[in-house]
Amino acid sequence: MERKRFPTDSSSLRVSILLLILAAAASSSISSAQVLPALPRCTHSSYELTQLPPEEEIDLAPCVIADINPGPSSANFSVIPLVHVTPSRCGVWRDGAVTGVNVLNEGGGVPIGFSQDHFVKFRLVSVMAGSTMARGYEGRHQYLLRGLVKELEAPFIVGTCSFIASIEKEVAQDVQAILMAQVGPPSFYQPANSNPFVFGIHINSDTYPLPNVQALDFWAAKNNPSRDVPVRAIYRLESDFFRSTCQSAIQALQNSGFTNIEALEFHPTKDDNGDGIRNEFDNRTLGQIADNACPRAPDFHPALFVCTLIEHDILLERWRQNQCRPTSIWLTAATWQWAHENPDLRPYMHGGAQWHPALNYSDEYFDSGRDLLEYTYQQFGYNGSYDQLVSYTVPILFSKHLQNAYKVATNPNPLQDFATPEGRELLRRDLKLLEVDTIFGEISFDKNQRNVGRGAAGTQWLPFERGEFIDVRRNEVQSNNQSDVVFANALVSPLLQAETSIVLPSPSAEGCNEGSFLNRTALENSSAILLSACESCPIDTYSAGDYDAAESCAECPTGSTTKGRTGQSECIPDEELNFILPRLLIGGYVLFGIIAALCLITVMWLWTYQGQVLVRISQPPLLVLVILGCLISSLSILFLGVQAEFASDMVDAACMASPWLYGVGFAVTFGPLLAKLLRIMLVSRRRNIHVNKSVNSQRAVGIREVSLLVGIILIIEVAILTAWQIDSPSQWSREVIEEVDGFVTESVGRCNSDDQFAYFCALAGFQLLCLLAALVLAYQTRHIHSDFAESGCISLAVAFTFEVVLLAAPIIVLARENNDVSYIVRVGSIFVQNFAVLLLLFVPKMIRVRESMQDPSKRGPNSERQSIYLPVAALTNSTWDEAADILNQMLGEDNAMPEEQRQNLEKVKAVLLSGNKGKKQNKMLHVPKGLARFSTTNSLKLSVKKQSSLYILREYAGIDIAKDSSETEVMEESARGSSPMSDDPGGVYLLPEFEALPSHATKIKVSKMLSWSSLKRWDFNIFDLCHLSDGNPLLFVGWAVLGSPHSQFAMSGACGEEVALEDFEGYNFSSSDLKIPMHTLCDYLRVIQDDYISSNPYHNEIHAADVLQSLHALLQMCEDHLLASNLELFAILLSAAVHDVQHPGSSNAFQANARTDLALTYNDNSILENKHASHSFVRMFGTDSNFGSKLTDLNILRNVDASKLANIRSKMIKAVLHTDMSLHFKTVSDIKGEMMKSDYLQDDETRWDVLMYLLHMADISGQAKPRPLSTLWTDRVMDEFFAQGDKEEQLGLPISPNCDRHTTLKADSQIGFIKFVIRPAYDVLGGIIPQVKERVVPIVSDNLEYWMEQRKIESPDVDSSGGV
Question: Which range is the signal sequence, renumbered to this chain (predicted)?
Answer without folding.
Answer: 1-33
